[in-house]
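Exercise 7.
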Amino acid sequence: MTHTDRDARFDEDAKLSDFERASTLYDPEWLEQASCKDMNQDDFFPPLNKSQQPSVEVTLTCRSCPVRKECLMTIAEFEGKVIGRGFFGGMSPQSRQRVYTYPVEQWTDVSHEMITDYLVSKLKGGQNVPVKERRARLTMLKEMGLE
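Solution. The predicted structure, written as tokens, is:
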């Protein structure tokens, strides 16, 4: 399918959700291997009045996904044209823009480092986190080899 064919498909059905639009971009062969394939679409496309940063669950899911590279490569082609929001490869559109400044062959490594930094700050952060939750977060960091 050509890029023009894809654009025409999106114009024909403007009622599709962002998740449905995005999922039509993917190659079904690798999408079946995606760690997020059975997750709630709202986790990846939060309403505009909600935080536009990925949750820890989304970030962890994407960080260990076997097809994160394919996800980043696919969304890079359509970034801002068809899909302007949502978390792909565990990253917000703003974070992906920073990744795109690097050579393509470095995207996977750079995004992995950015996701790891985000997770560490998210899991360590917050003075108002109850002690039990803080301990659970620190345990998670240790299990990931980040503490």
